[in-house]
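<purpose> Linking amino acid order to shape
<body> The protein record starts here
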Amino acid sequence: MSNPDRFGRVVVFGLGGTIAMTPTDSGGVAPNLTAEQLVAAVPGLDDTGVKLDVVQFRQIPGASLSFADIAALQKAISMELPHAAGVVVTQGTDTIEETSYLLDLLHDRPEPVVVTGAMRNPSMAGADGPANLLAAVQVAASPQAREQGCVVVFADEIHAARRVRKAHTTCCAAFESPNGGPLGWISEGHVHLANRLSSRTWLPAPPTDNVRVALLPISLGDDGTILDSVADHVDGIVVAAVGAGHVPAPLAPRLGAIADTKPVILASRTGGGTVLAKTYGFPGSERDLLARGLISAGFLDPVKARLLLHTLICNQIDRDTIASAFAASGGYADPTSWPWATLTAGADNA
């Protein structure tokens, strides 16, 4: 019996990364394999019935990708999607949690954009790249994945780009979604979604490399030296605060003064849960900082909050609109309060 999920056209964009790395003469590994070579090495790919087109887009490590690279990639993807069931992007895992979220913010169509890679390069025993690529193609070709925006497929799990994090340096199951878990799984070639996103958000203009947003982690005994050194040289700041959104008391008035002149986002460095709004009342608490003009990131982790702020600034909007965008994307306001059109799951936005 034929499986209707198995047929369609999928475009694979290769960006390099561990999945494409081979040993070098000087030691270590570096991206050398083309996207065509990656696809050709996947057992069972021909049996899916999916027609594949392959684009070698970049050949660099994930850590070297730029905002301009991702903006150009999204433009290339948008030109393919009217004629494809979905798209797969292979890249280095170092920045997958960031690039996937950027792609999600720029993706306003129903077709899935699936990002994957590998933790073990092809020269290692048990290399996971072929299995991840096969699963990613199956997700990209599946009608079940429509209206879910950009997803990350790794170790047969399907993660929403807005939630996913890389949580281990070497484990093949390195990706997790602390706030909500994976959307679903791939089993025997079929896509199974245990939960679906009810809404999606997108931005009309892509990010550029000429905006500077600082990510400032707060730690025990922080005296503000780093904050003071960067504040005048950036367009915005994301504070990776301790706990539920707290900083040492002496930093609070300085952050408030900066928030008078540029957006300052309050996120939690914990990796799970939301920034609180009204529980703690001491100097440097979330109540204190929000009253001083900082904007809560809600459930967004600091890395994703930085990407959202960067892209919002590139869209040349005011502070109130930035606050509304974070309220919607951070999960503490109705998704329909997103300042631009909200993409609703189940409605075909083609």
